Amino acid sequence: MKKRGKKGKKMGRLACCEKSEVKKGAWTPEEDKLLVDYITKNGHGTWRSFPKLAGLRRCGKSCRLRWTNYLRPDIKRGAFSFEEEQTIFQLHSVLGNKWATVASRLPGRTDNEIKNYWNSHLRKRIPNQSTDLQASSASKSADTKSNSLPTAHMVELESARVEANAKLSMDPINLSPPKDLPNCDYFLRAWNSAAGESFQKSKDFNSVIKVESDSVVTMQADPTFTVCSTGASADQRCKIEPEEATNSGSYSPDSYNVGKSSDITLDLLLDFPNDGEYLQYLKGDSDDDSSYT
DNA sequence: AAAGGCGTCAACCGCGGTTCC
DNA sequence: GGGAACCGCGGTTGACGCCTT
């Protein structure tokens, strides 16, 4: 994958560049042009050697950042749509500050952009600051408001987040369920979280699937999507034919295998109905924003 | 009109993970 | 197996513009 340079002589991490020789701060249009022109013609190669080759007096890291966060042709500029905001809220509730993972679900948006947008726009819309569990240490002193989500739900959300985190960081080879844990367990927790509850209550969902009380969702090796009661035996399960799962639009039968369970968890969370109670506060504050495209 | 406060966002920094030798 | 080289990520900083007083 990566080409080796000359063998290093020093122990420890090397500086990524000679600080005295590189320019810092805002990029000029001329620098942007040099960067884009070079990458268009040659690709970026190794970022470390890129500045020299492209004729830039910048750190390779700085070049990479400029390209990935700003100059890349597939970057989507402009205001975030309501749907994008929903996606960010939903994923953040489960993943915390995993901006790169969140960004991977929003084509054209960068992790840096989402992170900034969250910090400057979205975070303040959360009724209860503790929803930002990943950054809880920074928000410990934040005021708690009366319309906060129930504590039990917050605990569940955090639990689901941790589990999703763990799954996302897993080696794909280990995605098969742990022996002592049902393969759907972490998924179930997301389902049973406040977010999942909102999803379960949705009219759209219930029109497609008959959800039993205390329902949870599980997955099987076969390409069907199954809803079952907690602790239900196999014969209590009700199967959904793939073509019936039209609610999501994103659930292709192929996605229901265990190896993609993390994606399915995210898909489920992303599939909240727009009128779900869980995200009502999102709409509430967006009126004065008027930034949607 | 000027000064200070605040919000936004591009860019930087440092660390962890991965790959290669 | 260990160290070096590199990349990517998340947290933080700082410049700039807008708003308020």
What does this structure look like?
The chain is mostly helical. The chain has three domains: 19-71, Arc Repressor Mutant, subunit A (Orthogonal Bundle); 78-140, Homeodomain-like (Arc Repressor Mutant, subunit A, Orthogonal Bundle); 149-274, no CATH class. It is built from 13 helices and three strands; from the N terminus they run αααααααααααβββαα. It has helices at residues 29-42, 50-54, 60-71, 82-95, 99-104, 111-122, 136-139, 151-168, 185-192, 194-201, 203-208, 261-270, 280-286; strands at residues 215-219, 225-229, 238-240. Strands 1-2-3 form a three-stranded antiparallel β-sheet. A hairpin with an 8-residue loop joins strand 2 and strand 3. Helix 8 (151-168) packs antiparallel against helix 9, helix 9 crosses helix 10 and helix 9 (185-192) packs parallel to helix 12. The longest helix is centred in the middle third of the chain and has 18 residues, at 151-168. It starts with 28 loop residues before the first helix and ends in a 7-residue tail after the last helix. The structure holds a DNA duplex (21 and 21 nucleotides).
Explain briefly what this protein structure is.
With 293 residues, the chain is mainly alpha-helical. It has helices at 29-42, 50-54, 60-71, 82-95, 99-104, 111-122, 136-139, 151-168, 185-192, 194-201, 203-208, 261-270, 280-286, and strands at residues 215-219, 225-229, 238-240.
